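Predicting holo structure, pyridoxal-5'-phosphate bound.
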Amino acid sequence: MLTEPYKIKVVEPIKRTTREERYEVIRRAGYNLFNVPSEDILIDLLTDSGTSAMSDSQWAGLMMGDEAYAGSRSYFRFEQSVRSIFGYKNIIPTHQGRVAENLLFSVAVKPGYVVPNNIHFDTTRANVEHNRGVALDCVIKEAYDTRCRLPFKGNMDTEKLRRALAEHRGKVPFVMMTITNNSGGGQPVSLENIRATRAVCDEFGLQLIFDACRFAENCWFIKEREAGCNAKSVSEIAREIFAMGDGCTMSAKKDGLVNIGGFLALNDDKLAEECTNLLILVEGFPTYGGLAGRDLEAMARGFQEVLDEDYLTFRIHQVRDLGQRLLDEDVPIVEPVGGHAVYLDARRFLPQIPQREFPGQVLACALYLEAGIRSVEIGSLMFGRTENGKEIYPELELVRLAVPRRVYTTTHIRYVAESVIEVFRNKDRLSGLRLVHSAPVLRHFTARLEPLAG
Ligand SMILES: *Cc1c(COP(=O)(O)O)cnc(C)c1O
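Done. Tokens:
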């Protein structure tokens, strides 16, 4: 049996609430969990971003931070830690992942340019589009089938990529690859697929840039699943992956095990210089990039800790165990379980609720009301839109249970599983929601809803 490969040194109390209190909270929040104060939440599975617990070494490192404006010792330690894993020549710190994207795309993407990726994450897509480029998803088609069990469901469809590159010749600044594929359910990409993608890039003389947010989890899956990789260490696999690329964007709020931080790494000196010039304009001097010296120190340590195989084995199994407990009771989820979250399939969970009544949001609210658990809807509230007076709904109606790193114990996870199963048993009692207020863009953050019945 796997146990947590760490013990608890500091605790943060979490508050139990009654069902009556939660009913009041969710009503006041307009049935939108983004409006719920975290104090009123027992288990918070809204995101795995910036929610990790830091280690005693990272906390100690904060005291060692060098807050010099230029040439900080902490920067050099950060640079050395990043280079030992990623290998790239120019390492530009940023305060989170989307700034790395913003710098890179502002410099490299011109109006009408096309940026292929397996699946763009929301902020990646938004930053491409902000520069009037086109964000093109080239993932294998099985990624969209929630029941198709493939070991590497995040893979690029290299034929689709080749066709896109031929069609948009001269308009593609580089190819991107997101590991693991967050928007596709945290599914990994294989080494073989990265090699094949690299070969396609070479045919067209293009750079390959990784969106490396969950690189360590991706490497662990390669070690577990890919032929000939079991004897390699996760660190070796990481070096092998990044050696096939020309740079990466990184949100250290994921596999950097910190609460804030990120970077952009590039081999290309000219591109790096232009990005650095922009960094100075929007984030700060190149040796701190919008962060305190102590944040760089925490990241330097986090990148080494995340490659610990005992940690990764526990991490992946903790998420997988949650999924398995649900599958054992026939709760519909996205399969196979990815690296950082379990996704409930709300269409199959609540077949009686049509998409116009927000079944994913109904389910997310029910989980809060019954058990004090916060999840996030990824469905018609987040992605639905009105076009010519007609509502357009997304294909998938999901509720994501994202598991923060090193934060919750096995008992917490078991509690989550039992709560979801309880809601599933009583699913026939749930009814739809109606939108009463919504903003024109990214409406899920501020929307207000109300129950149609009761
Ligand atoms: C979180 C994330 C980002 C953006 O990073 P932030 O630190 O939130 O700005 C980019 N890509 C992927 C795949 C992510 O998961």
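The chain has a mean pLDDT of 96.
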